[in-house]
Amino acid sequence: MHSTHLLLEEPIRMASILEPSKASFFPAMTKIVGTLGPKSRSIEVISGCLKAGMSVARFDFSWHDPAYHQETLENLKAAVKLTKKLCAVMLDTVGAEMQVVNKSEKAISLEADAIVVLTPDEGQEASSELLPINFDGLSKAVKKGDTIFIGQYLFTGSETTSVWLEVSEVKGDDVVCVIKNSATLAGSLFTLHGSQIRIGLPTLTDKDKEVISTWGVQNKIDFLSLSYTRHAEDVRQLGDLYQTQIFAKIENIEGLNHFDEILQEADGIILSRGNLGIDLPPEKVFLFQKAALYKCNMAGKPAVVTRVVDSMTDNLRPTRAEATDVANAVLDGSDAILLGAETLRGLYPVETISTVGKICAEAEKVFNQDMYFKKTVKYVGEPMTHLESIASSAVRAAIKVKASVIICFTSSGRAARLIAKYRPTMPVLSVVIPRLKTNQLKWSFSGAFEARQSLIVRGLFPMLADPRHPAESTSASNESVLKVALDHGKAAGVIKSHDRVVVCQKVGDASVVKIIELED
Hints:
about 525 residues, alpha/beta, TIM Barrel, M1 Pyruvate Kinase, Domain 3, Pyruvate Kinase, Chain: A, domain 1, 3 domains, 8-stranded parallel beta barrel, 24 strands, about 25% strand, globular, ATP-binding, pyruvate kinase activity
């Protein structure tokens, strides 16, 4: 398995490019987050998405009500049982999002060089001359010459479905704009984004707080995607969300300026390239991606990249630029790729996930692990912590002996995430050992959260062990759990006879890394 990995610096043989991609149980080490919506909420389509490689389902609350999303979630649970594929749940907040209110849902045609007025009077009917918006402070935030972008759900980048406006004057609470390109806005929801304009809306709206405390808590969500995160304080103000991990979504210059402190506070980062692509000059977008992914990688926190195959919303194949973009996100160090409109309202949700997975798998073959490993070790410095030392040693050993898989016993998931941080070229099977907990009234096992939360980390594949086997128990019980893990690996096709496997586990107070060779 290891021998298929090339280094990007080596000349790539043309023959290897012409070889057909091999299907495997783990479609790619890089994870795929799919947004569930009108085109992807039936049990049948969700099952297809899970089989194609989706490991996190995103629920976007910037449209539709909790009852609608609950119905979708019940279908997801049914699909998980049907396919026997684990899937985590991500709740995406609305945040400081400006929206055009189009109650009639009639298509609105906008002509280049014509005038359109943005008004906070939501009672008005949306038309080609007047667009009501949900924010009354826009006239105070903009000045003549500023640019504003409007599009459905997210800016598709297509000049016919999203529009670019230039502010010509401010009249009281209204903003008068010149339309820069002809477009047709269809549907009930258009997002509005002001390029490099500070918007005085709260990061967490009252609606967001209500959704988190009701829908989020009841459904024990695994991840919360905090839209328009601008400061570390935005993450802190969420308080204790039990075991839910908070992913800060960086969408504008303000979030970019406070990136380091946000990264310190959040459990992971989502690079919202749609909005960032508007706030940043085009020539700077790739620089931000590379710098942000490097920082996330070194901190050992998952980084998610969005907006990769927009054209697949309506087409079966991505453009050449998009296919290259997905591969570069993997080579830059992304843990996961997030699909938005492509799966939410796209015509080919399953095919999109499958295509992105195949591109990720091919890019992983040429990922320069050796250089990445040295860079990470250098960044961590000396003396290393006990866990960091064990994790890096396990990866080094696995690469030296050409192990087919690393098996890590963990109860909190931290040890497995640290191993994944060093980006081994082989899958890391994270055996999550449930812990018995009590609140003085009843006993319960932890572990399901930890298992699902590794579904967004590159290279980590969780397996929930039998709770009767504690993580730090006798060698006999550890051996029986190891046998179950090895059988799982064999069934998945990642372990074969005579393969070497690196095992990382705790024995008493000591952490042990051992290499085992499988017999027939």
